Amino acid sequence: MDIKGTAVKSTQDYVKEKYPEKYRTWLGSLSPDIKNDFEYGIFSSNWFNLTNYVLKPTEKVGEVVFEGDTKKSSF
């Protein structure tokens, strides 16, 4: 399933705004291709794979920000 870039961007924006000190660690925890896309721009008009661009990065929020508690990363 694919979703628009606006939904993908919300995860990145959440980490940047709420946990700026952990943003780089979170970004570094992503797979290289996903990390690259987040670093160089997620465009609102593009379509992205839900699992790779939202679900997995959200799990990483739990691992990095909430010390492994992925349930807390369901923002």
Would you write up a description of this structure?
- The chain is mainly α and 75 residues long.
- The protein has helices spanning 5-18, 23-29, 32-40, 50-64, and strands at 2-4, 47-49.
- α1 (5-18) runs parallel beside α4 (50-64).
- The protein is globular, with a radius of gyration of 11 Å.
Main pleated-sheet profile: 2 strands, antiparallel
Give the number of DSSP strands. 2
Stretches where pLDDT falls below 50 for ≥5 residues? Answer: none
| Helicity range | 55-70%
Task: Give the number of helices.
Answer: 4
Mean pLDDT: 90
Approximate shape: globular
Distance between the termini: 20 Å
Secondary-structure element string: EHHHEH
| Gyration radius from CA atoms, angstroms | 11 Å
Strand content: 5-15%
**Strands side by side in the biggest sheet:** 1-2
Structural class: mainly alpha
Supply the key terms:
75 residues; mainly alpha; 2 strands
In brief:
60% of the residues lie in helices and 8% in strands. The chain is mostly helical.
Topology:
Elements (H helix, E strand, L loop, with lengths): L1 E3 H14 L4 H7 L2 H9 L6 E3 H15 L11
Antiparallel strand pairs: 1-2
Helix pairs in contact: 1-4
